[in-house]
Write a structure and sequence with these properties.
alpha/beta
Amino acid sequence: MKEKTKILVTGGTGYIGSHTAVELINAGYDVVIIDNLSNSNREVLDGIEAITGVRPTFVEGDCTDMDTLRRLFSEHNIKGIINFAASKAVGESIHKPLLYYRNNLVTLMNLLELMPEFGVKGFVFSSSCTVYGEPDENPVTERSQRKEATSPYGNTKRISEDIIRDTVHSGAPIGAIILRYFNPVGAHPSALIGELPNGVPQNLIPYLTQTAIGIRKELSVFGNDYPTRDGSCIRDFINVVDLAKAHVIAVQRLVEGKTAEPVEIFNLGTGDGVSVLELINTFEEATGVKVPYRITGRREGDIIQVWADPTRANTVLGWKADTPLTDTMRSAWKWQQHLREKGIM
Ligand code: UD1
């Protein structure tokens, strides 16, 4: 029997990592996960196994530690890496910048440094639309100008992109695909995996579903006086399973040597801008559940509006985010109910 191609998913028990592990297994890859469980837990592996029938190999460890990574690469014949191991809370990064720079950048540099040594050819990186800042024009394409970051978190994404570019251009025998996510939301339709925020959620959807189920009294809508159609901010909300599938295509492209450039960059979004108030309405219509909310002041550092032009990913990768937002909202709600049933939240 032909040996399956082994892919390392760093941060693979996290929100996007776990959904990607599922799609990789479904596509026939052998998945090795490394995660330090700083923002996730082992039970996520049960969820992945329940969905796919396969339990991925799991290494509990920190990617900032070279020895741990060396051991892992010696034991497993890894062909491609998808790097999700990073800290991602914007607010926290402002108070703990060094934690963010260390986690996100040392992890990245360790992986890039070890790739040639162990003959790993392909690297997929989780970047963010945060690199576009407040865009001059929407939708943004991959050629839109990157703006100065407004948080250390955002800055780690920008610097990471540059580190990848410089490393690949230096002649290292590796290829990379940088994926710029817009706002990933929802959960696997089985509700066996999803987003598990630590403490009070900072992001819109977990706060919204926790309010809908009664954990929080009301959702604060941060501002309705922005220059948008209804005054609330506009984002491009992309289904997490759609997002995960793009990673499978990206890593396959790298492993099979089909990339057109040494570093390729793709926006991963739907192409539709949806306002915060429209999103609340969509959730209510999709689930029949009312969300108590109140308009409060603007949140410092928020971008007014940003949505993707995903044409490049559509045409070059042959990928499209096509899950309707109503289905995505139902999946988020089903996941919240699952957490309640399990007594987790
Ligand atoms: C931010 C980051 C993004 C990062 C993501 C995940 C920036 C510009 N964006 O996205 O890079 O990947 O977090 O951590 O740094 N909102 C409310 N009430 C709430 C929560 C949010 O009204 O309780 C509004 C926000 O004002 C915003 C929208 O909902 O307009 C989305 O917010 P959020 O889910 O936090 O994501 P972003 O800030 O877009």
